[in-house]
Amino acid sequence: MQEVNETTQTDENKIPTHKNHMRAHLLSRLAALAGVLTLGVLYLFLPDKLIIGPSWLLLVIEAALILPFVIALTTQRSLPHGLIRTVALVTLGITTLALAIGIALLVSTLTQPGTKGLNLLRAAGILWVFNILVFALWYFEIDGGGPLKRHLAEPKATDFLFPQYAPGSNSNWKPQFLDYVFLAFNSSTALSPADTQPLTKKAKVLMMIQAVFSLVVIVLLAARAVNILQS
Questions:
Q1: CA–CA distance from 199 to each of 142, 180, 196 (Å)?
Q2: What is the chain's alpha carbon radius of gyration, rounded to the nearest angstrom?
Q3: Distance (Å, rounded) from C-alpha 160 to C-alpha 222?
């Protein structure tokens, strides 16, 4: 009888409490907000030739859009789920557009005389990190209908099949923002899924777009910069 009670207590200790779930969800959302602001900071360091408008514009837009999130998280007040999703997707749309414009303008500078290899490498490196963060945020927002729905639902694979969701696993594990950063990092370096597989069409489309952006930045631009340095 004592052994049964000890086993039951051990099993219960393995199951996260609602409080732990809420804390993990809050930390993951804060990490995502920090990722958004990091994009705005990276944008400040891009050369003027690769941006449209002032370099601080993206950071100001992001700060204005995520301000309701920050207020809601700090005051522990809930916002309508539809509003949260709309603001998050609009923010991601703007940052993705800034990334695409930056890559396009960087490609156009390859044909311009006097392009310095070190400047090209620096810009390509910034855009590569920018690419990782943008799509990590996309994956974080689309998987399972968003972080809130993932938090409320049973642990299972929806848009992405993480290793923790392998058949036979009874874990209560749920992905956090860092898991999506790791997924985006692998997609940007290997140009293909690593340990996590996309399951839905939208996940596959996003991963293909990210791979194309990364291919342009790493293969074409970095190789061109090396050629300039050697000449």
A1: 12, 15, 10
A2: 21
A3: 30
